[in-house]
Design goal:
The chain has 175 residues and is of the alpha+beta class. The protein is built from five helices and seven strands. It has one domain: Hypothetical upf0131 protein ytfp. It binds benzoic acid (BEZ).
Length: 175
């Protein structure tokens, strides 16, 4: 069976995987939050950056992009992603709504649960903005990650107050 993969972070603008179809999609009951520490991509072990995870929240939803992965390459695609997202993320099964094109499907998503070793949790907006502003790791600056995500969400016409408020707070910081 081909398999749907839901992207709500860097997978939206840089999938880095082969896929045979992609569609804007939504997951109900989850919020995107910059609450996961990044020691290996957008920060370093002594100075982690902040990246997104999904947090369970009734009546919330998260918009992103779903990718259909050919059955022939499902195993290698997930080994590649498991390695790339080894900093606390686990695969979960979720229901995807193709809210623009219509229909739904089951899919897989990477979520960093709140009990993982790299979880940072919530913090005041200004503190999160300053942490992102000063963080950099092997995959690039943490600010770039946030701005790329905000741009990708605007292109999807996605609502996300948390991301857009954080973007505005980071842009306010004077260097
Ligand atoms: C994503 O873009 O969906 C994603 C977010 C965190 C880890 C792995 C993938």
């Amino acid at each position: 069976m081909h398999l749907w993969l839901f992207g709500y972070g860097s997978l939206i603008w840089r999938p880095g995987i082969d896929f045979i179809d992609r569609r804007p999609a939504r997951v109900q009951g989850w919020s995107r939050r910059f609450w996961q520490g990044s020691h290996d991509h957008r920060g370093v072990p002594d100075a982690p950056g902040r990246v997104v995870t999904l947090i369970q929240e009734t009546a919330a939803f998260c918009d992103g992009m779903a990718y259909l992965v050919d059955r022939e390459v499902v195993d290698e695609t997930f080994s590649q992603l498991d390695h790339r997202e080894k900093n606390g993320y686990e695969r979960h099964q979720v229901s995807l709504e193709f809210h623009r094109s219509g229909g739904d499907a089951e899919g897989v998503v990477y979520i960093a649960p709140i009990d993982n070793f790299a979880y940072l949790g919530p913090a005041p907006l200004e503190d999160m903005a300053r942490q992102i502003h000063r963080s950099e790791g092997p995959s690039g600056h943490n600010v770039e990650y946030l701005l790329e995500l905000a741009d990708a969400l605007r292109k999807l016409n996605a609502e996300d107050e948390h991301v857009f408020e954080l973007e505005a707070a980071v842009r306010e910081i004077k260097t």
